[in-house]
Amino acid sequence: MIRWFNQLTIAFGASFLWLVCLIYFTQGFRSFVWTAVSYQLKDNLKLSPSASQFVSSIAFFPWSIKPLYGILSDCIPIRGRKRIPYLFLATLLSLGPWLVVGLSASLRASRVQLTILLTLQNLGSAMADVVIDAMIAEAARRERASFAGDLQSISWMTMALGGICGSLLGGYALVNLQIDKIFLLFSVLPTIQLFSCGLVKENSLLPELSTSNGSQMLNKNVFDEDKLTTKSKSSTSRRKKGQKSTRQRPAVENKFEIPEKDGTLASRWFQSLKMACYALFRAFRQPMIVRPMAWFFLANVTVPNLSTIMFYFQSEALNLEASFLGTARVVGWLSLMFGTFFYNRYLKKMKLRRILLWAHVGLAFSSLLDVVLVSRSHTALGISDKVMVLGGSALADGINQFKLMPFLILSGQLCPPGIEGTLFALFMSINNLGSTLGSFVGAGLASVLDISSGSFDNLTLGIAIQVLCTFIPVVFLFLIPKEATGIAT
Protein backbone atom coordinates (compact mmCIF):
# COMPACT_ATOMS: atom_id res chain seq x y z
CA MET A 1 0.00 0.00 0.00
CA ILE A 2 2.77 2.45 0.98
CA ARG A 3 4.78 1.50 -2.11
CA TRP A 4 1.73 2.06 -4.33
CA PHE A 5 1.15 5.49 -2.76
CA ASN A 6 4.82 6.40 -3.24
CA GLN A 7 4.59 5.45 -6.91
CA LEU A 8 1.61 7.78 -7.34
CA THR A 9 3.47 10.56 -5.53
CA ILE A 10 6.46 10.20 -7.88
CA ALA A 11 4.24 10.05 -10.95
CA PHE A 12 2.01 13.04 -10.20
CA GLY A 13 3.79 15.09 -7.54
CA ALA A 14 3.20 15.37 -3.80
CA SER A 15 1.32 18.70 -3.94
CA PHE A 16 -1.08 17.47 -6.64
CA LEU A 17 -1.78 14.22 -4.84
CA TRP A 18 -2.29 16.12 -1.57
CA LEU A 19 -4.82 18.44 -3.22
CA VAL A 20 -6.70 15.50 -4.77
CA CYS A 21 -6.86 13.67 -1.44
CA LEU A 22 -7.88 16.81 0.46
CA ILE A 23 -10.71 17.71 -1.91
CA TYR A 24 -12.10 14.18 -1.97
CA PHE A 25 -11.71 13.85 1.81
CA THR A 26 -13.67 17.10 2.19
CA GLN A 27 -16.37 15.78 -0.15
CA GLY A 28 -16.73 12.70 2.01
CA PHE A 29 -16.54 14.65 5.28
CA ARG A 30 -19.59 16.62 4.17
CA SER A 31 -21.59 13.86 5.90
CA PHE A 32 -20.47 15.56 9.16
CA VAL A 33 -22.33 18.76 8.36
CA TRP A 34 -25.18 17.36 6.26
CA THR A 35 -26.26 15.18 9.17
CA ALA A 36 -26.76 18.44 11.07
CA VAL A 37 -28.67 19.88 8.09
CA SER A 38 -31.04 16.89 8.14
CA TYR A 39 -31.84 17.47 11.81
CA GLN A 40 -32.13 21.22 11.24
CA LEU A 41 -34.82 20.60 8.63
CA LYS A 42 -36.61 17.97 10.72
CA ASP A 43 -36.42 19.30 14.28
CA ASN A 44 -35.94 23.07 14.01
CA LEU A 45 -37.84 23.88 10.81
CA LYS A 46 -40.43 21.11 11.46
CA LEU A 47 -40.58 20.06 7.80
CA SER A 48 -42.43 16.94 6.71
CA PRO A 49 -40.43 14.08 5.14
CA SER A 50 -41.53 14.99 1.60
CA ALA A 51 -40.85 18.73 2.16
CA SER A 52 -37.42 17.97 3.62
CA GLN A 53 -36.53 15.75 0.66
CA PHE A 54 -37.81 18.46 -1.71
CA VAL A 55 -35.51 21.08 -0.09
CA SER A 56 -32.54 18.71 -0.25
CA SER A 57 -33.23 17.95 -3.92
CA ILE A 58 -33.22 21.66 -4.78
CA ALA A 59 -30.05 22.26 -2.77
CA PHE A 60 -28.22 19.49 -4.65
CA PHE A 61 -29.34 20.66 -8.11
CA PRO A 62 -25.95 22.35 -8.88
CA TRP A 63 -24.50 18.85 -9.12
CA SER A 64 -26.78 18.29 -12.14
CA ILE A 65 -25.25 21.06 -14.28
CA LYS A 66 -21.59 20.16 -13.90
CA PRO A 67 -20.83 20.40 -17.66
CA LEU A 68 -21.36 24.15 -17.39
CA TYR A 69 -18.47 24.43 -14.95
CA GLY A 70 -16.41 22.11 -17.13
CA ILE A 71 -16.96 24.23 -20.24
CA LEU A 72 -16.01 27.40 -18.37
CA SER A 73 -12.81 25.94 -16.91
CA ASP A 74 -11.84 24.26 -20.20
CA CYS A 75 -12.39 27.25 -22.46
CA ILE A 76 -12.18 30.49 -20.47
CA PRO A 77 -8.90 30.68 -18.53
CA ILE A 78 -8.48 33.23 -15.76
CA ARG A 79 -5.12 35.00 -16.08
CA GLY A 80 -3.95 32.31 -18.43
CA ARG A 81 -4.89 29.38 -16.15
CA LYS A 82 -7.96 27.20 -16.42
CA ARG A 83 -7.91 25.01 -13.29
CA ILE A 84 -6.46 26.59 -10.13
CA PRO A 85 -8.36 29.95 -10.36
CA TYR A 86 -11.66 28.09 -10.70
CA LEU A 87 -10.66 25.91 -7.78
CA PHE A 88 -10.10 29.06 -5.69
CA LEU A 89 -13.52 30.39 -6.70
CA ALA A 90 -15.23 27.07 -6.00
CA THR A 91 -13.63 26.80 -2.57
CA LEU A 92 -14.79 30.31 -1.65
CA LEU A 93 -18.35 29.40 -2.68
CA SER A 94 -18.09 26.22 -0.65
CA LEU A 95 -16.75 28.02 2.42
CA GLY A 96 -18.89 31.17 2.59
CA PRO A 97 -22.38 29.68 3.11
CA TRP A 98 -21.28 27.53 6.07
CA LEU A 99 -19.84 30.61 7.80
CA VAL A 100 -23.04 32.57 7.17
CA VAL A 101 -25.33 29.76 8.33
CA GLY A 102 -23.19 29.19 11.41
CA LEU A 103 -23.18 32.86 12.42
CA SER A 104 -26.78 33.84 11.57
CA ALA A 105 -29.60 32.18 13.51
CA SER A 106 -32.27 34.00 11.47
CA LEU A 107 -30.96 32.59 8.18
CA ARG A 108 -30.88 29.08 9.63
CA ALA A 109 -34.52 29.47 10.70
CA SER A 110 -35.75 30.49 7.23
CA ARG A 111 -36.54 27.65 4.84
CA VAL A 112 -36.06 29.78 1.70
CA GLN A 113 -32.84 31.48 2.80
CA LEU A 114 -31.36 28.24 4.11
CA THR A 115 -32.17 26.52 0.81
CA ILE A 116 -30.44 29.32 -1.14
CA LEU A 117 -27.30 29.10 1.02
CA LEU A 118 -27.19 25.30 0.79
CA THR A 119 -27.57 25.56 -3.00
CA LEU A 120 -24.67 28.04 -3.21
CA GLN A 121 -22.54 25.72 -1.09
CA ASN A 122 -23.29 22.81 -3.40
CA LEU A 123 -22.44 25.02 -6.36
CA GLY A 124 -18.95 25.50 -4.94
CA SER A 125 -18.53 21.83 -4.07
CA ALA A 126 -19.72 20.70 -7.51
CA MET A 127 -17.40 23.13 -9.29
CA ALA A 128 -14.43 21.96 -7.21
CA ASP A 129 -15.35 18.37 -8.05
CA VAL A 130 -15.38 19.15 -11.78
CA VAL A 131 -12.03 20.94 -11.70
CA ILE A 132 -10.23 18.23 -9.75
CA ASP A 133 -11.76 15.53 -11.98
CA ALA A 134 -10.40 17.39 -15.01
CA MET A 135 -6.97 17.62 -13.42
CA ILE A 136 -7.06 13.88 -12.70
CA ALA A 137 -8.08 13.14 -16.30
CA GLU A 138 -5.22 15.29 -17.61
CA ALA A 139 -2.70 13.65 -15.28
CA ALA A 140 -3.91 10.14 -16.13
CA ARG A 141 -3.64 10.85 -19.86
CA ARG A 142 -0.08 12.16 -19.45
CA GLU A 143 0.79 8.85 -17.81
CA ARG A 144 -0.86 7.03 -20.75
CA ALA A 145 -3.70 5.82 -18.49
CA SER A 146 -1.36 3.48 -16.60
CA PHE A 147 -2.52 5.02 -13.32
CA ALA A 148 -6.08 5.94 -14.36
CA GLY A 149 -7.72 3.26 -12.25
CA ASP A 150 -5.30 3.95 -9.37
CA LEU A 151 -6.14 7.66 -9.32
CA GLN A 152 -9.86 6.96 -9.33
CA SER A 153 -9.45 4.33 -6.64
CA ILE A 154 -7.42 6.56 -4.32
CA SER A 155 -9.93 9.37 -4.91
CA TRP A 156 -12.88 7.24 -3.89
CA MET A 157 -11.06 5.61 -0.99
CA THR A 158 -10.04 9.04 0.32
CA MET A 159 -13.63 10.24 0.01
CA ALA A 160 -14.78 7.10 1.83
CA LEU A 161 -12.27 7.83 4.61
CA GLY A 162 -13.68 11.35 4.86
CA GLY A 163 -17.19 9.93 4.96
CA ILE A 164 -16.25 7.55 7.78
CA CYS A 165 -14.72 10.35 9.85
CA GLY A 166 -17.60 12.71 9.06
CA SER A 167 -20.28 10.17 9.94
CA LEU A 168 -18.62 9.17 13.20
CA LEU A 169 -17.97 12.73 14.32
CA GLY A 170 -21.28 14.04 12.96
CA GLY A 171 -23.41 11.89 15.23
CA TYR A 172 -21.20 12.69 18.22
CA ALA A 173 -21.27 16.42 17.45
CA LEU A 174 -25.08 16.50 17.28
CA VAL A 175 -25.26 15.09 20.80
CA ASN A 176 -22.60 17.36 22.31
CA LEU A 177 -22.58 20.57 20.22
CA GLN A 178 -25.07 23.13 18.99
CA ILE A 179 -25.84 23.04 15.28
CA ASP A 180 -24.26 26.45 14.60
CA LYS A 181 -20.96 25.21 16.04
CA ILE A 182 -21.09 22.20 13.70
CA PHE A 183 -21.43 24.47 10.66
CA LEU A 184 -18.49 26.60 11.79
CA LEU A 185 -16.32 23.57 12.55
CA PHE A 186 -16.84 22.15 9.08
CA SER A 187 -15.68 25.43 7.50
CA VAL A 188 -12.13 24.60 8.68
CA LEU A 189 -11.69 22.04 5.86
CA PRO A 190 -12.64 24.41 3.00
CA THR A 191 -10.29 26.97 4.57
CA ILE A 192 -7.40 24.49 4.43
CA GLN A 193 -8.41 23.64 0.86
CA LEU A 194 -8.31 27.33 -0.05
CA PHE A 195 -4.69 27.66 1.08
CA SER A 196 -3.73 24.32 -0.47
CA CYS A 197 -4.76 25.51 -3.92
CA GLY A 198 -1.66 27.69 -3.93
CA LEU A 199 0.61 24.65 -3.59
CA VAL A 200 -0.13 23.34 -7.10
CA LYS A 201 1.51 25.21 -9.94
CA GLU A 202 -0.25 25.52 -13.26
CA ASN A 203 1.40 26.75 -16.44
CA SER A 204 -0.17 29.56 -18.41
CA LEU A 205 -2.35 28.35 -21.26
CA LEU A 206 -3.01 31.65 -23.02
CA PRO A 207 -0.48 30.98 -25.80
CA GLU A 208 -2.34 27.77 -26.65
CA LEU A 209 -5.61 29.65 -27.01
CA SER A 210 -4.08 32.12 -29.45
CA THR A 211 -2.73 29.59 -31.92
CA SER A 212 -4.30 27.23 -34.37
CA ASN A 213 -2.38 24.31 -32.91
CA GLY A 214 -4.77 24.02 -29.98
CA SER A 215 -7.73 23.89 -32.35
CA GLN A 216 -6.17 21.24 -34.54
CA MET A 217 -5.08 19.16 -31.54
CA LEU A 218 -8.56 19.31 -30.05
CA ASN A 219 -10.28 18.15 -33.20
CA LYS A 220 -7.62 15.55 -33.96
CA ASN A 221 -8.04 13.91 -30.58
CA VAL A 222 -11.82 13.99 -30.33
CA PHE A 223 -13.21 10.47 -30.33
CA ASP A 224 -12.40 8.66 -33.54
CA GLU A 225 -15.66 7.17 -34.71
CA ASP A 226 -13.87 4.15 -36.16
CA LYS A 227 -12.33 3.27 -32.78
CA LEU A 228 -15.64 3.03 -30.98
CA THR A 229 -17.72 1.17 -33.56
CA THR A 230 -18.76 -2.27 -32.42
CA LYS A 231 -17.02 -5.39 -33.69
CA SER A 232 -20.20 -6.67 -35.25
CA LYS A 233 -20.07 -4.10 -38.06
CA SER A 234 -18.48 -5.19 -41.30
CA SER A 235 -15.02 -4.00 -42.31
CA THR A 236 -16.49 -2.50 -45.50
CA SER A 237 -18.83 -0.17 -43.61
CA ARG A 238 -16.00 0.85 -41.29
CA ARG A 239 -13.81 1.63 -44.29
CA LYS A 240 -16.51 3.78 -45.87
CA LYS A 241 -17.10 5.66 -42.66
CA GLY A 242 -13.36 6.25 -42.26
CA GLN A 243 -13.11 7.63 -45.81
CA LYS A 244 -16.06 9.94 -45.19
CA SER A 245 -14.56 11.18 -41.92
CA THR A 246 -11.21 11.83 -43.61
CA ARG A 247 -12.81 13.93 -46.31
CA GLN A 248 -14.75 16.05 -43.86
CA ARG A 249 -12.12 16.64 -41.18
CA PRO A 250 -10.09 19.43 -42.88
CA ALA A 251 -13.22 21.50 -43.33
CA VAL A 252 -14.14 21.04 -39.70
CA GLU A 253 -10.71 22.07 -38.48
CA ASN A 254 -10.69 25.18 -40.63
CA LYS A 255 -14.13 26.14 -39.43
CA PHE A 256 -13.17 26.04 -35.75
CA GLU A 257 -9.59 27.26 -36.09
CA ILE A 258 -8.74 30.17 -33.81
CA PRO A 259 -7.00 33.13 -35.48
CA GLU A 260 -3.36 33.37 -34.56
CA LYS A 261 -3.12 37.15 -34.28
CA ASP A 262 -6.47 38.70 -35.12
CA GLY A 263 -9.47 39.03 -32.85
CA THR A 264 -10.04 40.13 -29.29
CA LEU A 265 -9.68 37.96 -26.22
CA ALA A 266 -13.48 37.65 -26.05
CA SER A 267 -13.63 36.38 -29.64
CA ARG A 268 -10.93 33.80 -28.92
CA TRP A 269 -12.89 32.64 -25.89
CA PHE A 270 -16.02 32.38 -28.02
CA GLN A 271 -14.20 30.29 -30.61
CA SER A 272 -12.79 28.08 -27.86
CA LEU A 273 -16.26 27.58 -26.41
CA LYS A 274 -17.60 26.73 -29.85
CA MET A 275 -14.85 24.18 -30.41
CA ALA A 276 -15.45 22.58 -27.02
CA CYS A 277 -19.19 22.31 -27.66
CA TYR A 278 -18.54 20.75 -31.06
CA ALA A 279 -16.02 18.31 -29.61
CA LEU A 280 -18.42 17.46 -26.80
CA PHE A 281 -21.19 16.86 -29.33
CA ARG A 282 -18.99 14.49 -31.32
CA ALA A 283 -17.93 12.67 -28.17
CA PHE A 284 -21.51 12.42 -26.95
CA ARG A 285 -22.56 10.78 -30.22
CA GLN A 286 -20.36 7.76 -29.56
CA PRO A 287 -22.37 4.67 -28.47
CA MET A 288 -19.73 3.76 -25.91
CA ILE A 289 -20.53 7.00 -24.07
CA VAL A 290 -24.13 7.97 -24.77
CA ARG A 291 -25.72 4.58 -24.24
CA PRO A 292 -24.31 3.92 -20.75
CA MET A 293 -25.16 7.51 -19.82
CA ALA A 294 -28.76 7.06 -20.98
CA TRP A 295 -29.07 3.82 -19.04
CA PHE A 296 -27.59 5.30 -15.87
CA PHE A 297 -29.99 8.26 -16.05
CA LEU A 298 -32.96 5.92 -16.44
CA ALA A 299 -31.68 3.72 -13.62
CA ASN A 300 -31.86 6.69 -11.24
CA VAL A 301 -35.01 8.42 -12.40
CA THR A 302 -37.21 5.32 -12.59
CA VAL A 303 -36.52 4.24 -9.00
CA PRO A 304 -38.11 6.45 -6.30
CA ASN A 305 -35.59 7.64 -3.71
CA LEU A 306 -37.05 7.25 -0.21
CA SER A 307 -33.85 7.90 1.78
CA THR A 308 -35.17 10.98 3.59
CA ILE A 309 -38.43 9.23 4.46
CA MET A 310 -36.43 6.29 5.87
CA PHE A 311 -34.34 8.76 7.91
CA TYR A 312 -37.53 10.14 9.47
CA PHE A 313 -38.80 6.61 10.17
CA GLN A 314 -35.54 5.50 11.78
CA SER A 315 -35.22 8.61 13.98
CA GLU A 316 -38.90 8.97 14.96
CA ALA A 317 -40.63 5.58 14.75
CA LEU A 318 -37.61 3.49 15.79
CA ASN A 319 -36.18 6.21 18.08
CA LEU A 320 -32.62 5.60 16.86
CA GLU A 321 -30.26 8.25 18.18
CA ALA A 322 -28.14 10.49 15.95
CA SER A 323 -24.89 8.88 17.07
CA PHE A 324 -26.08 5.46 15.92
CA LEU A 325 -27.33 6.76 12.56
CA GLY A 326 -23.87 8.24 12.09
CA THR A 327 -22.39 4.83 12.82
CA ALA A 328 -24.71 3.32 10.21
CA ARG A 329 -23.28 5.70 7.64
CA VAL A 330 -19.79 4.61 8.68
CA VAL A 331 -20.72 1.03 7.83
CA GLY A 332 -22.01 2.30 4.50
CA TRP A 333 -18.72 4.10 3.76
CA LEU A 334 -16.71 1.02 4.72
CA SER A 335 -18.89 -0.96 2.34
CA LEU A 336 -18.18 1.63 -0.36
CA MET A 337 -14.44 1.19 0.19
CA PHE A 338 -14.81 -2.57 0.04
CA GLY A 339 -16.89 -2.23 -3.13
CA THR A 340 -14.13 -0.12 -4.74
CA PHE A 341 -11.47 -2.69 -3.84
CA PHE A 342 -13.62 -5.66 -4.88
CA TYR A 343 -14.48 -4.08 -8.22
CA ASN A 344 -10.86 -3.26 -9.10
CA ARG A 345 -9.75 -6.71 -8.01
CA TYR A 346 -12.40 -8.95 -9.54
CA LEU A 347 -15.02 -7.14 -11.63
CA LYS A 348 -13.39 -4.54 -13.89
CA LYS A 349 -12.97 -7.01 -16.76
CA MET A 350 -16.51 -8.35 -16.44
CA LYS A 351 -19.20 -7.33 -18.96
CA LEU A 352 -21.08 -4.24 -17.84
CA ARG A 353 -24.46 -5.78 -18.52
CA ARG A 354 -23.80 -8.59 -16.08
CA ILE A 355 -22.47 -6.24 -13.39
CA LEU A 356 -25.48 -3.94 -13.67
CA LEU A 357 -28.00 -6.78 -13.78
CA TRP A 358 -26.74 -8.30 -10.55
CA ALA A 359 -26.36 -4.86 -8.99
CA HIS A 360 -30.08 -4.20 -9.44
CA VAL A 361 -30.99 -7.62 -8.13
CA GLY A 362 -28.92 -6.77 -5.05
CA LEU A 363 -30.57 -3.34 -4.71
CA ALA A 364 -34.01 -4.96 -4.86
CA PHE A 365 -32.94 -7.31 -2.08
CA SER A 366 -31.68 -4.40 0.05
CA SER A 367 -35.04 -2.66 -0.41
CA LEU A 368 -36.76 -5.85 0.74
CA LEU A 369 -34.73 -5.55 3.93
CA ASP A 370 -36.34 -2.12 4.40
CA VAL A 371 -39.77 -3.74 4.00
CA VAL A 372 -38.86 -6.17 6.76
CA LEU A 373 -37.59 -3.28 8.92
CA VAL A 374 -40.73 -1.17 8.50
CA SER A 375 -43.09 -4.11 9.02
CA ARG A 376 -41.06 -5.11 12.12
CA SER A 377 -41.11 -8.75 11.00
CA HIS A 378 -37.49 -9.17 12.08
CA THR A 379 -38.38 -8.81 15.76
CA ALA A 380 -40.05 -12.23 15.69
CA LEU A 381 -36.63 -13.69 14.80
CA GLY A 382 -34.87 -11.82 17.58
CA ILE A 383 -33.05 -9.44 15.19
CA SER A 384 -32.75 -5.88 16.49
CA ASP A 385 -33.60 -2.72 14.53
CA LYS A 386 -29.99 -1.59 14.69
CA VAL A 387 -28.70 -4.76 13.05
CA MET A 388 -31.24 -4.37 10.24
CA VAL A 389 -30.29 -0.72 9.66
CA LEU A 390 -26.56 -1.48 9.65
CA GLY A 391 -26.96 -4.42 7.26
CA GLY A 392 -29.18 -2.52 4.84
CA SER A 393 -26.85 0.50 4.74
CA ALA A 394 -23.77 -1.64 4.10
CA LEU A 395 -25.42 -3.68 1.36
CA ALA A 396 -26.95 -0.75 -0.53
CA ASP A 397 -23.80 1.42 -0.52
CA GLY A 398 -21.54 -1.42 -1.61
CA ILE A 399 -23.81 -2.40 -4.50
CA ASN A 400 -24.20 1.19 -5.66
CA GLN A 401 -20.42 1.42 -5.92
CA PHE A 402 -20.41 -1.59 -8.26
CA LYS A 403 -22.68 0.45 -10.54
CA LEU A 404 -20.59 3.60 -10.45
CA MET A 405 -16.94 2.52 -10.73
CA PRO A 406 -17.00 1.20 -14.34
CA PHE A 407 -18.36 4.46 -15.70
CA LEU A 408 -15.95 6.63 -13.73
CA ILE A 409 -12.90 4.77 -14.98
CA LEU A 410 -14.16 4.55 -18.55
CA SER A 411 -15.03 8.25 -18.67
CA GLY A 412 -11.67 9.29 -17.22
CA GLN A 413 -9.71 7.25 -19.78
CA LEU A 414 -11.68 8.40 -22.81
CA CYS A 415 -11.59 12.16 -22.16
CA PRO A 416 -10.04 13.88 -25.23
CA PRO A 417 -7.61 16.78 -24.73
CA GLY A 418 -9.24 20.17 -24.23
CA ILE A 419 -12.60 19.04 -22.84
CA GLU A 420 -11.56 16.82 -19.93
CA GLY A 421 -13.61 18.73 -17.39
CA THR A 422 -16.65 19.00 -19.64
CA LEU A 423 -16.95 15.37 -20.73
CA PHE A 424 -16.24 13.89 -17.32
CA ALA A 425 -18.67 16.34 -15.74
CA LEU A 426 -21.32 15.49 -18.35
CA PHE A 427 -21.43 11.88 -17.21
CA MET A 428 -21.57 12.75 -13.53
CA SER A 429 -24.19 15.47 -14.04
CA ILE A 430 -26.45 13.02 -15.87
CA ASN A 431 -26.06 10.68 -12.92
CA ASN A 432 -26.76 13.51 -10.45
CA LEU A 433 -29.72 14.82 -12.44
CA GLY A 434 -31.21 11.34 -12.47
CA SER A 435 -30.67 11.07 -8.70
CA THR A 436 -32.26 14.49 -8.14
CA LEU A 437 -35.29 13.58 -10.23
CA GLY A 438 -35.45 10.24 -8.41
CA SER A 439 -35.59 12.18 -5.14
CA PHE A 440 -38.44 14.31 -6.48
CA VAL A 441 -40.25 11.12 -7.51
CA GLY A 442 -39.70 9.71 -4.02
CA ALA A 443 -41.03 12.91 -2.41
CA GLY A 444 -44.05 12.80 -4.70
CA LEU A 445 -44.69 9.15 -3.86
CA ALA A 446 -44.52 9.93 -0.13
CA SER A 447 -46.97 12.78 -0.61
CA VAL A 448 -49.42 10.63 -2.61
CA LEU A 449 -49.27 7.85 -0.01
CA ASP A 450 -49.70 10.43 2.78
CA ILE A 451 -46.46 9.45 4.50
CA SER A 452 -45.58 12.16 6.99
CA SER A 453 -43.80 12.69 10.29
CA GLY A 454 -45.50 10.38 12.80
CA SER A 455 -47.60 8.67 10.11
CA PHE A 456 -45.75 5.81 8.42
CA ASP A 457 -48.66 3.42 7.82
CA ASN A 458 -48.17 3.40 4.04
CA LEU A 459 -44.37 3.30 4.08
CA THR A 460 -44.35 -0.46 3.50
CA LEU A 461 -46.40 0.05 0.33
CA GLY A 462 -44.03 2.81 -0.79
CA ILE A 463 -40.98 0.59 -0.39
CA ALA A 464 -42.76 -2.26 -2.19
CA ILE A 465 -43.31 0.09 -5.14
CA GLN A 466 -39.61 0.99 -4.96
CA VAL A 467 -38.68 -2.71 -5.14
CA LEU A 468 -40.77 -3.19 -8.28
CA CYS A 469 -39.32 -0.07 -9.90
CA THR A 470 -35.79 -1.36 -9.24
CA PHE A 471 -36.29 -3.91 -12.03
CA ILE A 472 -37.35 -1.32 -14.63
CA PRO A 473 -33.73 -0.43 -15.59
CA VAL A 474 -33.03 -4.12 -16.24
CA VAL A 475 -35.40 -3.89 -19.22
CA PHE A 476 -33.19 -1.16 -20.72
CA LEU A 477 -29.88 -3.01 -20.40
CA PHE A 478 -29.76 -3.24 -24.18
CA LEU A 479 -28.54 0.39 -24.06
CA ILE A 480 -25.26 -0.89 -22.64
CA PRO A 481 -22.90 -2.03 -25.44
CA LYS A 482 -22.84 -5.81 -25.38
CA GLU A 483 -19.05 -6.16 -25.29
CA ALA A 484 -18.38 -3.20 -22.97
CA THR A 485 -16.41 -3.86 -19.79
CA GLY A 486 -15.40 -1.64 -16.90
CA ILE A 487 -12.04 -0.76 -18.46
CA ALA A 488 -11.19 0.86 -21.77
CA THR A 489 -9.84 -1.48 -24.40
Automatic annotation (TrEMBL):
The keyword Nucleus does not apply. Gene3D superfamilies: MFS general substrate transporter like domains (1.20.1250.20). Residues 236-247 have a biased composition (Basic residues). It is a multi-pass membrane protein. NCBIfam families: fbt. Belongs to the major facilitator superfamily. Folate-biopterin transporter (TC 2.A.71) family. Pfam families: BT1. One of its GO terms (cellular component) is membrane. This is Folate-biopterin transporter 4. The keyword Repeat does not apply. It is found in: Membrane. Residues 228-252 are annotated as: Disordered. It comes from the Eukaryota. Its main location: membrane. It comes from Cinchona calisaya. The chain crosses the membrane at residues 52-72, 84-106, 153-175, 294-313, 325-343, 355-375, 387-410, 422-449, 461-480. Keywords: Membrane, Transmembrane, Transmembrane helix, Transport. InterPro entries: BT1 (IPR039309), FBT (IPR004324), MFS_trans_sf (IPR036259).
